[in-house]
Design brief:
The chain is of the alpha/beta class and about 450 residues long. It contains 14 helices and 20 strands. The two termini are about 25 Å apart. It binds inosinic acid.
Length: about 450
């Protein structure tokens, strides 16, 4: 069985949680490799809805081992809440969850700095989730961060806290006029969290190596999406981690030579939360229709998501940066009500039409989308499970999207529940996982 990375091909919220949930039964280990509790992976199992923030979606499948890799930033209080709520709902964590010693910890001053800097940023505001993810990664890169292993060493933790709290308090008080913190207050809370989490904290890169040597297959579950990547996204309107496929290696300690394939997830349209360029954004009736039909409200912050047409230039870029082998298209049924559907096939900037995703911020803001227009199918695709049952126009839409991105489509999601899924016959995904159909209930 291959080792596969799943990445978002847009600005996050593509429905990765559902696709991971469908294919997880065929993997032994599921790894989260970046991001933190800014993510919200919604998974519907039977009639129950779970929103996972830091724990891999594989936790909902008994017997799968789940890793929070070194590339993740962990808010211990939020993680413990998530663990307790899973246990209350009957999900077992014993022997199923492992946290990297090298993962960095979100400290209380990180959300405070995140919110304070956003409140003073004016037009440079990013629209972060306010969870402290950016400041935690900033400390990691500045080499002053605190790692999960440090939580288990009281003396080292105190030393690192003394340095950080002094520095952060000055920033918070003098620059942002915001609340400050005490070392003792943080220390006592974080030692308590450490006691709780200690059984789960381990050398996950070594575990992964040993398990892979023994033949285990690994699924890497990305959070956010390509366009929010720290290097490849629409900087500075991005998150602070490596959301693209390369992040799976650095964020887990698994070498590139052990990864066999990458699946990109894209909605049949496009959404974005927070500030930043979004060339195909719609306003008015069609945006409202997509938002209402797609329930496009943030699963972590509840913010209404910005909605627009799919951007084939962006998707082709995601295919290139991630080396996508195949695509899963989600929420096709949301488009059922549209008279016409547009695909962005070019960025018109000054006198040129660009067909490769540009790197200049000015172009993202000032270009105009060049659209190809297709007529809608105006019938329900909700819950369909066979490609052949899709209306001809829906199949034409998917075929055109695939052609424009240069990537085949292996899976189409037609609803939130696990079995509202079309597996394309003889596709990359069914070739990788021949028994994939067996994870979906029979028709
Ligand atoms: P941060 O990750 O909280 O720093 O936020 C930076 C940007 O990434 C903001 O535009 C957020 O809305 C966006 N973002 C962060 N996490 C997610 C996510 O899980 N889905 C979609 N957007 C996200």
């Amino acid at each position: 069985m291959p080792n596969i990375v799943i990445v978002g091909a847009q600005w996050g919220d593509e429905g990765k949680g559902k696709v991971v949930d469908v294919i997880t039964p065929h993997f032994d280990v599921i790894v989260r490799y970046q991001g933190g509790n800014n993510a919200g992976h919604t998974v519907v199992v039977g009639r129950e809805k779970f929103v996972l923030q830091t724990i891999p979606s594989g936790i909902l499948h008994p017997g799968r081992r789940n890793i929070i890799g070194c590339g993740v930033v962990v808010n211990p209080a939020s993680l413990i809440d998530e663990m307790e709520s899973l246990v209350q709902r009957g999900v077992s964590l014993d022997g199923n969850l492992y946290i990297s010693k090298n993962a960095h910890v979100i400290m209380p001053y990180h959300p405070a700095l995140d919110r304070a800097s956003e409140s003073k940023a004016g037009k440079h505001r990013i629209g972060t989730t306010g969870k402290g993810v950016g400041p935690a990664y900033a400390d990691k890169t500045a080499r002053v961060g605190i790692r999960m292993a440090d939580l288990l060493d009281e003396q080292l933790l105190r030393e690192k806290l003394e340095y950080n709290v002094k520095q952060k308090n000055r920033l918070l008080r003098e620059i942002y006029d915001a609340e400050s913190f005490t070392v003792d207050g943080i220390l006592s809370a974080y030692l308590r969290y450490a006691g709780w989490l200690a059984p789960y904290i381990t050398d996950t890169a070594l575990l992964l190596h040993n398990w892979m040597e023994a033949g285990s297959s690994v699924l890497f579950e990305g959070a956010q999406g390509t366009m929010l990547d720290i290097d490849h996204g629409t900087y500075p309107f991005i998150t602070s981690s490596s959301t693209t496929a390369g992040g799976a290696c650095t964020g887990s300690g698994v070498p590139p030579t052990r990864i066999n394939g990458v699946i990109g997830i894209s909605k049949a349209y496009c959404t974005r939360v927070g500030e930043g360029p979004f060339l195909t954004e719609l306003h008015g009736e069609t945006a409202d229709l997509l938002r209402a039909r797609g329930n496009e409200f943030g699963s972590v912050t509840g913010r209404p998501r910005r909605c627009g047409w799919v951007d084939a230039i962006g998707l082709r870029y995601a295919a290139r940066i991630n080396g996508l082998d195949t695509l899963a298209i989600t929420k096709l049924d949301v488009l059922d009500a549209c008279d016409t559907i547009k695909i962005c096939v070019g960025y018109k900037y000054e006198d040129e039409v660009l067909t490769d995703f540009p790197e200049e911020e000015r172009i993202w803001h000032e270009a105009e989308p060049v659209y190809e227009e297709l007529s809608g199918w105006k019938s329900s695709t909700a819950g369909l499970r066979d490609y052949e049952d899709l209306p001809t126009k829906a199949r034409e839409y998917l075929a055109r999207l695939s052609e424009l991105c240069g990537v085949s489509i292996s899976l189409v999601s037609t609803g939130p529940v696990r079995d509202e899924t079309i597996l394309v016959n003889d596709s990359t995904l069914t070739r990788w996982i021949p028994s994939l159909r067996s994870s979906l209930p029979p028709h």
